[in-house]
Structure formats: C-alpha cells, structure tokens
Amino acid sequence: xxxxxxxxxxxxxxxxxxxxxxxxxxxxxxxxxxxxxxxxxxxxxxxxxxxxxxxxxxxxxxxxxxxxxxxxxxxxxxxxxxxxxxxxxxxxxxxxxxxxxxxxxxxxxxxxxxxxxxxxxxxxxxxxxxxxxxxxxxxxxxxxxxxxxxxxxxxxxxxxxxxxxxx
Length: 167
Known about the structure:
Blueprint: H1 7-44, E1 46-58, E2 69-78, E3 81-89, E4 99-105, E5 108-114, H2 117-166
Antiparallel strand pairs: 1-2, 1-4, 2-3, 4-5
Helix pairs in contact: 1-2
C-alpha cells in the first residue's frame, strides 16, 4: 500500500519525501564542509592540555533513554595567558578537574577543537547519507506503489467495462 490514500495524500507524501531527502543531502554536504574545516584548522593548530573547569547539562538535549548532553568548559594556558573554551558534548568519562588534550589556533587561541575532532565531519556525513538513502528508498517505494495501485484501478475499470458491455 502506498503512503497517500488520495491524490492530495500522494502529493503530500511526495513533498515530504523530497524534503526529507533534501535535508539529508544538506546534512551530508555539511559533514564534508565540517570535515574540511577541521582539517584546515588542524594544519596550523597547536596541541596542548586543558583542564575541565565545568560541565553543564543541556536541558533541551535529552534522548529517549533520558540521557542528557553536557557542555564541557575548559581552560588552558598559551604563552602565559589563560584562555577558556567549550569542547561541546561531554563523554560520560569526563569529570571537572580532568586534563584533556585540545588543539588551538595559535593566531586565535579562543578557537579550539577537542581530540575527537577527526570523526565529527565524517559522522555528520554518514548520518546525512543515511537520511538520503531512507528518503530515496521510501520515495521509490511510494511511487512504485502508486503506479501499481493505478494499474490495478485501471484493470478493475477495464474488467467492469467488459462485464457491462457483455450484458
């Protein structure tokens, strides 16, 4: 059975699936830009250690299991000057006072990346690709089902016409 049960339903389903696919394409492309940006950053970045100064729960980021994301705030010293930054999401093993490896821009030490930067763009790209594949799959499945349904309706109409013309 196809997603839409009427002509309007077919149109709405098609629009939804196209938008879903386009969002996936955007996320996929964004992942590559993110990865490219990270790699450019790392060409000039310096490695140092930082201390986690605070970890704050992000209230709007609870998942289905009830787990929250946490922002990880750090401080580090470059040429005698103390800088503060945010590493983004926390991994459950991080604690306030822990030392972590970071990378910073020597021209602007306020720009930092955590040691997990290597996979962030790839993961985003993979998520985008997955969304694209799901959108394309359901689009193809929906359009094939619509075509099959229309063929069945047309065959039923021909059968009824032939039965009525024999009477």
